[in-house]
């Protein structure tokens, strides 16, 4: 997928799931990390280590625990935002929120890429193909992304009313 497609699909998915605009924005910017890492480190093979899910899940678990330790529990997706806006600023909380949602965006990048190519599952050097719905940058990609965003956001907006 193109970067703008990753951003649109990820932002729509996270917003529909949480109703949290901040989480959606953070995940959206994190959704390009796997490809951005490959651009900065050209010796990495495309869709290998940077697209391997444990690279994102393990630090996500750490930051999730960091946020839980600070807030006690995390049932409300807006809880951290409310805490910060009420004057309770905590660097570990802000860092945990920022990195958790950004890493979630990077993690969502992987199944999104599975729609148009190969991804690693059990090893970073593995090439697993799920399905091939479209080619990167094709009109089918644009159509898929637009339809997905409209359907998910429509359902998400009704769910959060």
Query: What is the average of the pLDDT values?
Result: 84
The termini sit apart by 31 Å
* Helix residue percentage: 55-70%
Uncertain runs are none
Count of extended strands: 2
Give me the secondary-structure category.
mainly alpha
| Order of helix and strand elements from N to C terminus | HHHHHHEEH
The number of helical runs is 7
Q: What is the radius of gyration computed over CA atoms, rounded to a whole number of angstroms? A: 17 Å
Give the biggest beta sheet. Answer: 2 strands, antiparallel
Strand order of the largest sheet: 1-2
Task: Tell me the count of domains.
Answer: 1
Q: Roughly what fraction of the amino acids lie in strands?
A: 5-15%
Based on Cα principal axes, name the global outline.
globular
Describe the structure.
The chain has 161 residues and is mostly helical. It has one domain (3-159). 65% of the residues lie in helices and 6% in strands. The protein contains 7 helices and 2 strands. It has helices at 3-18, 21-30, 33-40, 54-71, 79-85, 91-114, 139-159, and strands at residues 116-119, 128-132. Strands 1-2 form a two-stranded antiparallel sheet. Helix 2 (21-30) packs across helix 6 (91-114). The radius of gyration is 17 Å and the shape is globular. The protein starts with a helix and ends with a helix. The relative contact order is 0.19. The model has no long low-confidence stretch (mean pLDDT 84).
């Amino acid at each position: 997928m193109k970067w703008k497609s990753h951003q649109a699909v990820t932002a729509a998915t996270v917003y529909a799931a949480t109703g949290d605009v901040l989480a959606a924005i953070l995940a959206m910017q994190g959704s390009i990390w796997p490809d951005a890492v490959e651009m900065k480190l050209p010796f990495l093979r495309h869709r290998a280590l940077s697209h391997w899910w444990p690279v994102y899940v393990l630090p996500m678990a750490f930051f999730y625990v960091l946020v839980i330790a600070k807030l006690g529990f995390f049932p409300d997706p807006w809880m951290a935002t409310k805490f910060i806006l009420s004057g309770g600023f905590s660097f570990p909380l802000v860092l945990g929120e920022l990195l958790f949602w950004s890493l979630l965006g990077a993690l969502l990048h992987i199944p999104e890429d599975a729609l148009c190519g190969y991804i690693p599952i059990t090893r970073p050097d593995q090439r697993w193909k799920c399905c091939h719905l479209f080619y990167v940058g094709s009109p089918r990609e644009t159509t898929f992304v637009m339809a997905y965003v409209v359907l998910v956001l429509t359902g998400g907006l009704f769910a959060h009313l």
